[in-house]
Amino acid sequence: MKTVITNVRAILTAPAGIGLCVVKVETSEPGLYGVGCATFTQRLGPVKSAVDDHLRPLLVGREVDRIEDIWHLCYQNSYWRNSPVLNNAISGVDEALWDINGKRANMPVYQLLGGKCREGVAVYRHADGRDAQEVLDNVLKLKEQGIAYVRCQLGGYGGIGRQPRRPEGSQHGAYFDPDVYALTVPKMFEYIRSKLGYDIPLLHDVHERIAPIEAVRLAKSLEPYRLFFLEDALAPEDVDWFARIREQAAVPLAMGELFTHPLEWRSLIVNHLIDFIRVHISDIGGITPARKLAALCEAFGVRTAFHGPGDVSPVGHAANVHLDLAVQNFGIQEFSGFPDPLPEVFPGCPDLRNGYLYANDKPGLGIDIDEKSAARYPVGDFGRPIEWTQSRWPDGTIARP
Ligand code: MG
């Protein structure tokens, strides 16, 4: 008898204070279901609606083993494609179907993807501080915990040091100064390298905070500090400028956490303009497009560095790890930890030991959601305006966060 989808639904929960969206796909086989990450934490409501109101009626009754066909069905069904809302909704279904088919085959998903290329995946973690000394102290703490790769940032994403002189009547917002940012970051790395030497690989995230020509200048000035990579030096709207950075600085470049459309990454990869692709897997539509993207990258010498902040659910982190284990051109995995009570709500979280993340070897993604436990951590008013993305430059102009 064929195994078909009987229900598709989005579950919202915020166990660690960040709103998460996980999709559960139930099947006609008793006890068989799968889970997938659909977390677009800034817009939880529209993703939930896309899943419950649109994908559920489209998918109930379809065979669970047609992952590829179902992915394209969902992708084409809205006629207008892409966008983080639609891609996250599709990702929830897609990852759940990989989970279901792993369980049916009695294999972990990494096995379905071709098997392990490595036993554990190296992670980087984030160290920040108000000054270079505090950043250094936090790097050393992470090193003691066995973390081998550390991303260094001054005060969150930087540029907050100088009290901005604003025009009268300026709007409320999260102010930062791109000049302060660009001047302080090289000094921070100079200090950290002078104390630490070059044994530990360091990374940095520009978070698209500066003008393109400043990104060129920053990359050049960071060259002596031998970064593992420089992350999101440009906004997706400015990617043509990567060629300028390439001409002038031998700094490995990572790009793509905001990408949602294949045209955003294609020319960067085939023209050797980046070194690491760091898309957010649920934002591009799940495991199915991510494994193809990894294969495209492999052909052009680009490695993976999938986005892994706290607004990826543990289910999404598990999907990251299964892909990381199975793709030859894995580079590094961003990891933000599983603070309590995440492991209680999501039994089967990947395990971090001595700087490496390990998947458990259970069939499927090896992770579940305890819905009773998840219900104890409601997302609350998820429509309230988000503050940190209301960024402004010193003169009050709204800026990219
Ligand atoms: Mg980033």
CATH architecture of the domain at 112-362: Alpha-Beta Barrel
Tell me the total number of β-strands.
15
| Residues in β-strands, percent | 15-25%
CATH domain topology of the domain at 112-362:
TIM Barrel
The dominant shape is globular
Quote the distance from N terminus to C terminus. 52 Å
Uncertain segments are none
Alpha-carbon Rg, integer: 21 Å
User: Quick check: average pLDDT?
Assistant: 96
Q: Describe the largest sheet.
A: 10 strands, mixed
CATH C-level label of the domain at 112-362: Alpha Beta
Bound molecules: magnesium ion
Helix share, percent: 25-40%
Helix vs. strand class: alpha/beta
Note the total helix count: 14
What would you note in describing this structure?
This protein is of the alpha/beta class and 401 residues long. It has a domain at 112-362: Enolase-like C-terminal domain (TIM Barrel, Alpha-Beta Barrel), CATH 3.20.20.120. 38% of the residues lie in helices and 16% in strands. The chain is built from 14 helices and 15 strands. Strands 4, 5, 7, 8, 9, 10, 11, 12, 13 and 14 form a 10-stranded mixed β-sheet that branches. A 3-stranded antiparallel β-sheet has the order 1-2-3. Helix 5 (132-144) packs across helix 6. Bound molecules: magnesium ion (MG). Magnesium ion binds next to loops.
